[in-house]
Amino acid sequence: MTATDTIVAVATAAGRGGVGIVRLSGPDAAAIAARIAGTLPAPRTAAYRRFRDRNGATLDSGLVLQFVAPQSFTGETVVEFQGHGSPQALQLLVAEACAHGARPARAGEFSERAFLNGRIDLAQAEAIADLIDASTAEAARAAQRSLDGEFSKRVHAAAERLIELRMFVEGALDFSDEDVDWLADRGLAERVAEARTALAELLVQAEQGRRLRDGYTVALTGQPNVGKSTLLNRLAGADVAIVTDIAGTTRDVLRENLDLRGLPVTLVDTAGLRDGGDAIEREGMRRARLALEQAELALFIVDARSGISAEDRMLIDALPAALPRLIVHNKADLASSTASLPGNDAVAISAATGAGIDALIAEIHRRAGLRVGEAGLFSARGRHLDALRRAQALLDAAAERLDERVLPELAAEDLRRALDALGEITGAFSSEDLLGRIFASFCIGK
Ligand code: GDP
Ligand code: ZN
């Protein structure tokens, strides 16, 4: 699968910068670049050149370097112009390359070529985009690990177990006429158990990776004046919400994207839930309800001095039924030591003093499925989880058939399909349609 055309794009971020890079990839990359920069330096060495248009006018000046196929990111010959980070000059360079026969790259096309040429697999290509888009340092580190092939390696390891299992089952089917009951072999049950464990562990890790990539939406809710805005400010570390003593101040829904110890969290401060009020307040209420429906966790704030009141209870019961909730007893600094301690599903904090905030953050991590302090996480996407869950369901189905010795031929087929599902993650088995959708979501120049 070798592309015959040469693509070009600005590889650095839109906007001004000290340095801007234009990247060419394809069979004519070196020839086109030589028309612009004159003779090119030896591969993998940089040389200072003037970049000129067809009339000899200087467009920019800077470094040029080439990577000869297949030793490059895309597996094709790649040339990079490192000019000044002027959006105008960079566009002129792209236009000049196009005048010499290159064409503008589509979104994600460099990564797509790297994938098609076998330089990286699909999960790694996605990790490039996830690294660029990472919203916390932890998410960036996880994406880097996926880019290094950490996730793919574990997918391969799980696939290896499924392959062994499948070979065992197919072998057993071949001998099924003879006296030996291969399916009764103790080794089979062990293999099934091992494959199941491997997939289950991978799924737990991938779920955490997906969480780091996609973040977690947490709604702050509770009666007016319990300290929602104060808590939002405490978690954000900046004064982002108006805090006053007058009930019902937070009229609109306020969203903050936070880096909560590595977990990207969208914190939504809903208007103090309260019936009645004027039109604006009712509109605020409507938006608050909507925000709650989209949240993944509700922090229901109560006043630690009174604990959960009858009114709180009503509001808690009115939360979307499927929405997980955590009761937060705030203003613990004002509560007497004899005040009733929060139960299992609750934490006590003081948004004003910061007491208990560490425990609250740890609990949010736990609810998000992140194991605190877990090292070596890799990034993953919803589509990976979906493929892993399908593989798991097929393995379970196969295990059941093998256990009951019912239609073991179908067990072999289930295992084959489970392997295909795993293959979708790394792209060993994926439709063009899927590939198109994945790469189209990248930005140009990637
Ligand atoms: P909201 O209506 O739920 O958003 O409540 P606010 O955040 O606006 O807080 C209402 C009042 O309670 C303000 O005067 C805050 O300073 C105060 N407050 C909030 N949290 C605490 C706390 O932990 N301790 C104390 N002593 N006061 C708090
Ligand atoms: Zn508020």
From TrEMBL:
Its main location: cytoplasm. Gene3D superfamilies: P-loop containing nucleotide triphosphate hydrolases (3.40.50.300), Probable tRNA modification gtpase trme, domain 1 (3.30.1360.120), tRNA modification GTPase MnmE domain 2 (1.20.120.430). GO terms for cellular component: cytosol. Its cofactor is K(+). The lineage of its organism: Bacteria, Pseudomonadati, Pseudomonadota, Gammaproteobacteria, Nevskiales. Belongs to the TRAFAC class TrmE-Era-EngA-EngB-Septin-like GTPase superfamily. TrmE GTPase family. Homodimer. Heterotetramer of two MnmE and two MnmG subunits. This is tRNA modification GTPase MnmE. GO terms for biological process: tRNA methylation; tRNA wobble uridine modification. Binds 1 potassium ion per subunit. Mg(2+) binds at S229, T250.
